Each structure stands twice: as C-alpha cells, then as structure tokens.
Amino acid sequence: MYSKIALASVLFAAAKGQQVGTNTAEVHPSMTWETCTAPGACTTNNGKVVLDSNWRWVHDAKSGSYTNCYTGNTWDATLCPDDATCATNCALDGADYTGTYGATATGNSLKLDFITQGASSTTPNVGSRLYLMSDDKTYETFKVLNQEFTFDVDVSQLPCGLNGALYMVNMAADGGLSSTNKAGAAYGTGYCDAQCPRDLKFIEGSANVDGWTPSSTSVNSGVGTKGACCAEMDIWEANSISTAYTPHPGPSSIDVCTSDQCGGTYSSDRYAGTTDPDGCDFNSYRQGDKTFYGPGETVDTSKVFTVVTQFLTDDGTATGTLNEIKRFYVQDGTVIPNSESTVAGAGGNSVNVDFCKNQKIAFNDTDDFNAKGGFAKMSTAMAEGMVLVMSLWDDYYAQMLWLDSEAYPVASDPATPGIARGTCATTSGSPATIETSEKSAYVTYSNIKFGAINSTFAATPAKRSMLGATAGRPQRAA
C-alpha cells in the first residue's frame, strides 16, 4: 500500500546502474515453482531469482579503480555530474546473495534475512528485493486473469514495523535493456510500482542524479527528480501481526514521471500521478475481525501457512475483466476462507467492485482507486503480464503503521472505521530501532504454484463448492 523502499546499506553502498561490472560474477540462485491445470496436476518450472539493482555495488566502469559512484546517500560529483554522464560512467556488479544480502534460495524456497553482516562489509545490509526469472536474462511474467496464485509463507519472525511483501508489477521482462541500459534483468534493473518511486538511482537507462536530495532520516537513500510508475498487485504485504492484499491500478508499462507530478509516497500531492497509491486494500483487522490473523489466531502466524489468491473475471475467462479478488488460507490441512468484513456498508470477504466503492465511503478515504480506472485498469495491466517481486523491508516514511498499528493516522481515534490496522503501538516500527533490535528477523516464501482456479491447493470438490457460502469457517482439506 505504501512504498517498498530500497534500503540497502553495504560496504560499497546501494545503487542502480546501467553498465556491467566484472569484479563479481553474477550467478542467479535457482528456485523452482509449479504450473497447475487441476488439483495434483502440476508441472515444475526451473526458475531463478535476481537481486534488485538498487542493492548492488555501483562503481567506476572505466578506470578500473572501482571508485564508488554512490556512497552513503550521495553521488560522486566527478563520476556523476549529470544523469547521462553517470549512466555512462557507472557499472553495476554481481552479488553475493547469501553472504552479503541474506537471500538464500533452496529448492522451491527463498529465505530473506532482514539484517546481514557480510564478511567483507563494515556496515550491514538491510532487507532485499528479488525478482523471479524464467532464464538468466528474462523476468518471469504472470498473466493472472481467471487464474490463481498460491505460495507458502513463514512470517513468524516478522515483528511490528517489518513487511514481507510478495507482489506483482508491470516491469519490462528484459529489465529495460537498451543502448543505455546494458545490465537489464540479469542485474535486476527496471523496477516500478504504484508509489512512482523516486529513490531509484537509475530509471530507463538514465541516472536520477539531477535534483537528488539525500534523505534526512536514512543514511543510505534519497529522492531524485524522476520516478517510475506502473500498476501493482500487492498479493501479500504482511508481518506476524497484520496482512493486507491490495490492487493498485496504473500504467501497464513503466511511466517515467517528474517531481511532485509523480504522486505517491515521495511527493507533496499523493494523488497527482498516473497510479493509485492507496489501492483497494483488504486488511482483516481493519475490516473489523481482530482475531482472524496473528499469533494463535484463526490464521496462526506462529506457523507456516499457505496463501491462495484467485483473480476472477466477469465472464470466467482469461480475456474477461477482473471483478473480484478472493483469498483463502490453508493451515494444518484446513482451508480457511478470508475473514468477513464487519464494517457497516462495506461487507464481504473479498476485494470486488462494490467493496472498493463502499469501503472508501465507509472509511472516508479518497477514492483514487476508481478515479484511476479501478478493475478495468487493473485488467489491462494483468493482461500484459506482471513480474513477481519478493521482498523484505522496513519503512522510513511511515514506520509501517499503515499496515499494523493501533491507529493510522496516529492522531486519529482508533474507534473510527478504517483507522485501526493491527495491535502494534503507534510508536513502533522505527527503522533506527528495529534495525538494531530485530537483526534476526526473516521471511520465507516457498512452494509457489500458479494455474487454473481451484488447481493449486488441497480440498475436495464438494468442500471447494462450500467455501463461498461458509466464509470465515474453516474447512478440513482432503
């Protein structure tokens, strides 16, 4: 719902570059996932993952001196006097995935550590963002209309203030490879999302040096003049306390914006851009069920569970228009439909056309979702194919209070509909605190499956037909 900020802090500093360095060989970790046509009829795909380029070392591409192009939260004035020169001068290098960035892929599983102290680093790395690849030069793209997407997740070690996010965005499959971007998907370039992020070091083969303002709260990041907008489907944003899933309509390919016209988290006018930065979110706690999700609750976050998301269309085909996004969980052999909203005027247990209108009214929120095209715009984005993102991050802008706190905005009355998001104190989530106190935090994503509706999780046909009528009551899986 808010920004997935690139907050890497390593020996050579995080940046996004366009040339390719040769100091460290780039070897993409393997990660398998499955395509399903019916229950039990799934085929294994041999995929890979790649680290986002904003976490990588960027250095002088020409002299062989390996001078940093970006140190702390500032650019080198000699190597990067302007956008074009910087893109020419700077090389993006390979990554030590586990040792430096805490990203470990094993079989069908990807574990992301929050804090990683590399053997050669004097400062730790914070979080990470990775993309699923179909091969070493290409991101995997998913067309989710009339399909379902399923994965297992372990959020047991994610406290207040952290977000283990699995989502999809309309990035180019080749990472924006071009005459000015020699790195491409092989080095994790081309990111965009619904916040039109302006903390990206390079966008579309050009640096973001001009107008760059170092952050006053983060020693590693800043905001440039340019931003990168596109549609976003937040399948999963969560810690052990709260979770939300949220479609954000926007352009179906990267749209480069300028300054406050970008909108989103980084701009003074949140709704000025081409995307919907708020989206239409379903957070069970925010929708009134305060015992559905969390440690020891109906969905017990102290244990691994399965998340099933169905993207239903108006005509039941992959060429139809998205009109409902349904959610199920599976834990200990039990299929658990999503919680029922108890908010007056905004009931139901799915994100659908009526819900996304009524919720905005009930919560007195700006309805930028429908203003930016709603489900029709999301349908166009999904039909183009979206890239899968798996990340772990903390929030320098709002301390993740929009996801998990007792009140957001913090000065609001928690009894007001839509204000309470979870049980975390409004003083929680400070990156300065959790980067010290929660060094062992991690999230694990595994067992990804994608395919026909009702093909990726275990339940008998009879019990599947009951799920829509028994929302909120667990069904024992076959």
From TrEMBL:
One function term, GO molecular function aspect:
cellulose 1,4-beta-cellobiosidase activity
- Keywords for the protein's UniProt record, in alphabetical order: Carbohydrate metabolism, Cellulose degradation, Glycosidase, Hydrolase, Polysaccharide degradation, Signal
Q: What is its EC number?
A: 3.2.1.-
May I ask which residue range the UniProt record assigns to the signal sequence? 1-17
**InterPro entries referenced in this protein's UniProt entry, alphabetically:** ConA-like_dom_sf, Glyco_hydro_7, Glyco_hydro_7_sf
Task: Write down the species.
Answer: Lachnellula suecica
Give the reaction(s) catalysed.
Hydrolysis of (1->4)-beta-D-glucosidic linkages in cellulose and cellotetraose, releasing cellobiose from the non-reducing ends of the chains
Per the record, the similarity remark reads: Belongs to the glycosyl hydrolase 7 (cellulase C) family.
Instruction: Indicate what this protein is called per its UniProt record.
Output: Glucanase
